[in-house]
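Collaborator request, handled under Task 6.
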Amino acid sequence: MFSEKIHKEVDSAIKRVWLEDIKKDYLQHSLLKEDSLKNAFYYHLRRRLGDHYLLDNHLRIYTEFYYMGLRADLVVVKLNENPGQNGHLKNDVAEIIAAIEMKYKYDLSDKPFLSDIEKVRKSIEEYKINALYYLAFIHEVEYEANSTLSWIDIEKSPWAKGRVVELNGYFVTEKQEPVWEVVSYNGLNEDIFREGNYSR
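Structure tokens returned to the collaborator:
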């Protein structure tokens, strides 16, 4: 099992990518659909963590990752000490540190988002994959003012406690710019990302 330090560092990088880099890309019209969101997330996360950090800690970032029932848009994994010796590279994954599901929709339907939430729930409850999970959702519809968007009712979803973070991008009635926020249930980096201490 990886140290809490690594989990905190990866978590911080993911949250900063969302609040700073992805928001900037969105405002500069650099994100067209989900694939460009995925590509941008990979680029920014790798840049923020740095190749030396990734290599020194045997960490890698992969997209479209399938493993033991888990299907994730992007993951951060720890490889074993000697990768490349066990046939396919997926056999060298020692641990999944973080899994990110992404959706980018201009649609009133919330079904695609709920489907990703169910995938994460299954990964935690049924497949027993111990990792940090992130729901990176851009929903280009307007929500009511003075409300924080949250896809998960944490009281009804105990599986999310200590594990899941919502990365939300959406519009609020009568606001020009989209809202970009982190709704965290994983308890990591709360001093940095608590509302008021860190907002974009």
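The cover message to the collaborator said: "The two ends are 33 Å apart (CA to CA). Strands lie at 59-67, 70-79, 93-105, 132-143, 164-172, 179-184. Please let us know whether this matches your experimental observations."
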